[in-house]
Amino acid sequence: MIYKIVTTINLAKELRAKYPEYDFVPVYWMATEDHDFDEIASFHLFGKTYTWRQEGRGAVGRMDPGGLRDILSELPEQVPLFEEAYLGHAKRSDAVRCYMNRLFGKEGLVCIDPDDPDLKKEFLPVLQEELFKRPSFGLVSAATSAIQALGYHCPVSPRELNLFYLGEGFRERIVADEAGFHVLNTGLRFTEEEMRAELSAHPEHFSPNVVLRPLYEELVLPNLAYVGGPSEIPYWMQLKGVFDHYRVPFPMLVPRNVVRCINPANRRRLEKLGLSFRDIFKNEVTLRKEFVARISEKTLDLTEEKEALESAFSGVLAKALAIDKSLEGAVNAERTKLLNSIGHLEKRIKKAEEKNHETEVAQLLSLKGKLFPGGGAQERHDNFLNFYLNDPRFIDKLLALLRPLDFTFHVVAED
C-alpha cells in the first residue's frame, strides 16, 4: 500500500510540473468495505507476528480498533502515530484516515471512504441494473475469454450477481433465486418489490465486489489514472466492457513502483557473503550452487574429465567402426553410461563441498528468506514499520528516490 501511495503522489507531482495549467490530486481509495478480516488481522515486525484478536466480521472499516491496545503495548517501541490513530477513534476507517493524513497529508493525499451513503446514492443506477438485469457477468465473461485466448491468466471470476449486502457485523453475497433474493449465511430474504424498496431507502446496504468496485471508484470520482499492484492491473483489464456499458471513462492503468528494501544489517550480511543486489533475485538452487562454487578453494566441476572421456570415445568409436559398423550403438551406449556416472559423481562432489560450507550456506539462505519472505513479495509480509521505526524519514526517502513511470524493480539499500 505504501508503495502504491508513493507512486500516486509522485505521479501527480510529475504531471503538475509538466502541465502547470492543470492540477493533479493523489487519491487513496480506502478498503473500508472489505470483509476479509483475516487478511489484515496479522502483521510481521522484526521477525515476530502480531495478531489482532477480534470477534465479529463485516466491513473492516466499521470495526472498533480499540482491541489493538494490547498489541500496541507489546511492540518493541512505542509508535505514537498509530497509538493516537487506533486508540483515539471508534472506527478503523477513521483511524486509517488519521494516520494516512499524518504520513501523507502534506503531500496533498485525499482519502475517500466508499462506505458512505451519499456516495452509494451516486452508484444507485448501477446497483439497480446489477440487481435486476445483471449485465456484468456476461460482459466480464466475454472479456475473460478473449484475454485467456491470448494466453493470459485472468485473476477474477465474475458471479451472476456481483454485489454484497452490507450490515452491522456482516458483508455477505446477494444471490437471486425464484422467490427474489436472499443474502447468504443470513436469514435475509427479499422479493423483487422489497429489494427495490430496500435499495431506494438504504443504498449504503449494498456493496460492490471486485468486479464492480473499480466502476464504483471511477463513477464516483473519475480519475486520469489508476495505480495498481501486480495482482490488480490484470483484473482491471477484464472490466473494460463493464465501463463501456455504463459509459464511464476507463482510466489509464499504471503499475506501482516495485521495491525491495534492504536494511543496514542485511546489507552488511550481503557484502560479507560477497553477493550483489542482482544475486539475491536468483532462485535458491542457482544461488546456492553459484555461491558454493565461488567460495570453494577446490575445482568442483568435472568438465575437463568429461571432455577427456568424449575424446577417448571418439577414438574408440573410430576403431570400432573400422572393424564393424554395427558396434556404433554399443559404443555410444557405453559412452552415455559413463558420462551419466560422471555427472552423478559431480553432483555428489558439489553436495559434499556444500556440506563443508554449511554455515555460510545457512547464512545465505537465511538472508534470502529475510529479503524474500516465504519466497514472495517483501511488502506482502513485512509491515512497513520494519523500516519506519529504524528510520522515521523512510517515506520521505521513498518519495525522493522513486520515479512513478520507471517500471524497473527498485532495490533500496540503507547505509
Strand order of the largest sheet: 8-7-6-5-9
Distance between the termini: 24 Å
Major sheet characteristics: 5 strands, antiparallel
Mean pLDDT across residues: 87
Instruction: Tell me, briefly, the overall form.
Output: globular
Q: Roughly what percent helix? A: 40-55%
- Please mark out the parts with pLDDT under 50 across 5 or more consecutive residues, or reply none: none
DSSP summary: helix tally: 19
Query: How many beta-strand segments?
Result: 13
Q: Could you tell me the strand content as a percent range?
A: 5-15%
Structural class, from helix and strand content? alpha/beta
Describe the structure.
The protein is α/β, with parallel strands linked by helices and 415 residues long. It is 49% helix and 13% strand. Strands 8-7-6-5-9 form a 5-stranded antiparallel beta sheet. α4 (80-87) packs antiparallel against α5 (92-104). The longest helix has 29 residues, at 328-356.
Write the layout of secondary structure elements.
Elements (H helix, E strand, L loop, with lengths): L1 H17 L8 E3 L7 H4 L1 E4 L2 E4 L17 H6 L5 H8 L4 H13 L5 E3 L4 H6 L1 H9 L3 H14 L13 E5 L2 E8 L2 E4 L5 E2 L1 H10 L4 E3 L4 H8 L4 E4 L4 H5 L2 H7 L5 E4 L2 E5 L1 H9 L11 H12 L7 H21 L4 H29 L1 H14 L13 H4 L5 H8 L7 E5 L2
Parallel strand pairs: 1-4, 10-11, 12-13
Antiparallel strand pairs: 2-3, 5-6, 5-9, 6-7, 7-8
Helix pairs in contact: 4-5, 7-9, 8-12, 14-17, 15-16
